[in-house]
């Protein structure tokens, strides 16, 4: 079975527990985190996580909804993109 | 990780802050095999096919958008030009019967528009073409989601002035048939109409197409504007390069969606239309890109040159990104749907004449502009003839979507609501070209048509 991987992008004001909360949520939804990067860009905290969701029962739709709820409670914004989109837009 | 945080953030930011989206996925559907002498049977069969395919299109598009994390805004259908379908139908109201079935199918499927109610009359007009033309006021004012078109000129055939003269009167009737002349917003008059255009109101499924084809229109005026704003000191060569790189990325996103959606639907993938299409949303404006390039207002001297640079860069970036670039693939500058265009008209920076000059370097023509309600049918015909001649002489597509808004004068404003926006009523030159268009006949094709 082909792997389904997604990029989770979290952005907003830096605060305690962002990585812990997001990774906890991904774990709960059966996603395997393969990579994490973070950086402050133009004064905004940006974190990206590459997660394998092949075995996640929630799928990208369920995961996006849960992430949106979490992000809202923390005053953050979150986006979730299939790896194929990032690959198409940034690699030839 | 193979991708840097900046790259992933760039894509997320385009969607979050700069209105990047897949503007339209349009499924073109051949209906020629359903032609029937009985208009009721034709309408029923066409309606059933379109409702079924439309439902699948909407369902798959929603699911794909969710799994990709790329917004797909509009889901649409386009059909074989209606005039070909009603050829054998003797029944007088066959165009209306078909139109109502198409509209019902669009509503049932949940697609936002269905295009193709029109005819190709660039060289001559058949009886069926005439019936469709004459039905337009009633059809477009009594349906919700149906869009109409006429192709009245081409570089190869010349221009059908007889049909353009008649269209002036039809447009007046169309404007009178609904509030604010809204029916006119659902109709485009073309020269060199592409057969695979995914954008409304002019989409249709041409005679050279397969049974079905999925065409995609991407959009990113906000994205281009953002990169232009970030480089205020770049010279024009560098600016072109910056725009090309950005358009390359968004085109790749569009192509991915088109390819995958076509696969899921089991139909051929047609084209990616790379047109920059503004919306009424703040910042999602082509005019603002031009202002970001250094114009005080759209319409100022330099506007045509700025637009030429912009569209050239868009085409080069798009063509590098996909082998399937097609459709209109120009820049849309609809007055009512672009905040900077509206402002430019209202402060007196942009005239109808300058708008026409801009269309000489920009694909889609005079789009979504209002003129006073007392503009004569002959003047409407003359405006259309001027614009289509730009397309004919330059071997490119041009179109006109004009709203002679009843009861308005220059300086008024007509609010269509929603995606169609608000059109300031533009003054029209008070001198007449009526005697010229009244000559009728067919304007010969330009010498560049003799290319064999």
Q: Indicate the low-confidence ranges of chain A by residue numbers.
A: none
Question: Spans of chain B of 5+ residues with little confidence (pLDDT < 50)?
Answer: none
Q: Give the class-level CATH name of chain A.
A: Alpha Beta
Q: What oligomeric arrangement do these chains adopt?
A: heterodimer
Strand content of chain B: 15-25%
CATH architecture classification of chain A: 2-Layer Sandwich
SSE pattern of chain A: EHEEHEH
Tell me the number of helical segments of chain A per DSSP (H or I, 4 or more residues long): 3
Overall residue-averaged pLDDT value of chain B:
95
State the helicity of chain B in percent bands. 40-55%
Shape verdict of chain B? globular
Count of discrete alpha- or pi-helical segments spanning 4 or more residues of chain B? 14
CATH topology of chain A: Alpha-Beta Plaits
CATH superfamily of chain A: ACT domain
- Helix/sheet category of chain B: alpha/beta
The value of Rg of chain A in angstroms is 13 Å
The biggest sheet of chain A amounts to: 4 strands, antiparallel
């Amino acid at each position: 079975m082909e792997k389904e991987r997604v990029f989770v992008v979290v952005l907003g004001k830096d605060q305690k527990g962002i990585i812990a909360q997001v990774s906890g949520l991904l774990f709960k939804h059966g996603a395997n985190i393969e990579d994490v990067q973070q950086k402050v860009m133009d004064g905004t905290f940006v974190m990206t996580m590459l997660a394998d969701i092949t075995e996640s029962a929630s799928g990208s739709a369920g995961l996006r909804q849960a992430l949106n709820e979490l992000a809202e409670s923390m005053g953050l914004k979150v986006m979730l993109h299939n790896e194929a989109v990032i690959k198409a837009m940034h690699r030839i | 990780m193979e991708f840097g945080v900046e790259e992933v953030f760039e894509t997320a930011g385009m969607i979050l802050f700069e209105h990047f989206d897949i503007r339209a996925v349009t499924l073109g559907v051949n209906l020629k095999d359903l032609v029937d002498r009985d208009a009721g049977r034709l309408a029923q069969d066409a309606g059933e096919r379109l409702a079924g395919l439309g439902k699948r299109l909407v369902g798959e598009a929603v699911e794909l958008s969710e799994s990709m994390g790329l917004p797909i805004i509009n889901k649409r259908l386009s059909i074989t030009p209606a005039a070909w379908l009603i050829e054998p139908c003797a029944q007088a109201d066959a165009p209306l019967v078909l139109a109502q079935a198409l509209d019902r199918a669009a509503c049932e499927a949940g697609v936002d528009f269905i295009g193709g109610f029109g005819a190709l009359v660039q060289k001559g007009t058949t009886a069926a073409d005439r019936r469709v033309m004459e039905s337009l006021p009633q059809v477009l004012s009594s349906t919700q989601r149906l869009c109409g078109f006429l192709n009245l000129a081409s570089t190869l055939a010349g221009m059908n002035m007889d049909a353009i003269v008649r269209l002036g009167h039809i447009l007046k009737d169309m404007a009178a048939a609904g509030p604010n002349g809204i029916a006119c917003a659902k109709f485009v008059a073309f020269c060199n109409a592409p057969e695979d255009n995914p954008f409304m109101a002019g989409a249709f499924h041409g005679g050279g197409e397969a049974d079905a084809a999925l065409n995609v229109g991407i959009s990113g005026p906000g994205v281009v504007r953002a990169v232009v704003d970030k480089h205020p000191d770049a010279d024009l060569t560098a600016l072109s390069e910056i725009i090309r790189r950005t358009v390359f990325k968004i085109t790749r996103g569009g192509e991915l969606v088109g390819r995958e959606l076509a696969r899921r639907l089991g139909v051929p993938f047609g084209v990616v239309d790379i047109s920059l299409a503004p919306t009424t949303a703040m910042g999602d404006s082509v005019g603002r890109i031009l202002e970001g390039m250094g114009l005080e207002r759209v319409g100022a001297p330099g506007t045509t040159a700025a637009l030429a640079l912009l569209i050239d860069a868009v085409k080069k970036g798009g063509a590098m990104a996909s082998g399937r670039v097609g459709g209109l693939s120009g820049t849309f500058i609809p007055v009512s749907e672009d905040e900077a265009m509206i402002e430019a008209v209202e402060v007196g920076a942009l005239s109808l004449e300058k708008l026409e000059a801009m269309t000489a370097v920009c694909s889609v023509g005079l789009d979504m502009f209002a003129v006073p309600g007392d503009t004569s049918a002959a003047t409407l015909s003359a405006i259309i003839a001027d614009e289509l001649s730009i397309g004919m002489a330059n071997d490119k597509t041009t179109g006109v979507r004009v709203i002679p808004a009843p009861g308005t004068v220059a300086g008024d404003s007509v609010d269509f609501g929603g995606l169609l926006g608000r059109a300031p009523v533009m003054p029209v030159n008070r001198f007449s070209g009526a005697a010229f268009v009244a000559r009728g006949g067919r304007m010969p094709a330009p010498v560049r048509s003799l290319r064999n």
